[in-house]
Amino acid sequence: LFRSKEIFPFAVINSYARNFSSLEKKMHNKIQNGAKGIISQPVFDIDNAKKLLESFNIAKEGVRSEEHTS
Question: FRET pair for 70, CA 20 to 30 Å: which of 19, 35, 53, 63?
Answer without folding.
Answer: 19
